[in-house]
Predict the structure.
Amino acid sequence: MPPKKRIKRTRRPSAADARRKKKVCQFCRSGAEPIDYKNIAVLRKYMSDRGKIRARRITGACGIHQRQVAMAIKNAREMALLPYTQTRS
């Protein structure tokens, strides 16, 4: 007898799911300025206070722009414009 196929269970949507507002990519919405490693003010919004790059689900950036932000942060770190980590105080 062949093995039984497992049925994948999905989570039931809750009322909180209906109220939750979908995050929109800031770069897609504005469409004005390209992501640049020299624009430190913008890049800091996508970093945690410890210096880590924030995840896409937290920032709301689309996949293309999240990759560009990550590369810009890494370039800025290499050029010593951004720190790799923050010191614990």
